[in-house]
What does this fold into?
Amino acid sequence: MAQYREYCCHPKDFRLLPGVGHAVRTLNHAGLAVIVMTNQSAIARGWLTGDVLGQIHRKMRRALGRVGARIDAIYVCPHHPDDGCACRKPGIAMFTQAAEELGLSLASSYVVGDRMLDVLSGRAAGSQTILVRSGHRPEPAHGVEPDYEAEDLTEAVAWILQQERLQRGQGSRCHAMAR
Ligand SMILES: [Zn+2]
It folds into this structure.
């Protein structure tokens, strides 16, 4: 959901993509939990501290707040790919932790991401998956297709709400916005 950069290591590098704030607000108003799950191996690599990442996240929350949007929770994997942790996407430990802590059903959730590893982790978590093309770089095929491909988060949210109308019913929903 953030503007794509190889690594965003400073708050000044952080920008919300156009329309992201309104898209998140639409989810908020629909009563859906909005959760960010992010791989931040830059921390393990020593390029980013947890403190600075916290500043970046506060800047994100402020930018969202200016348009009346909010994130319900943020989960971070700070590990290096070689650490073999369970939380780094496409691992699903961040997803199961969020579901447990917030009382959400992963099967009733949507994972929105701009990389195939988001789609892979969402699929492994049993959620519906949406690949957003904004900020997306071409990637090799993984043999896995998202449930939906959207131009941007606005289009992704429109599809999510359409699915919700189709399956209207029970329980709380989780929207994991992976980035
Ligand atoms: Zn991890």
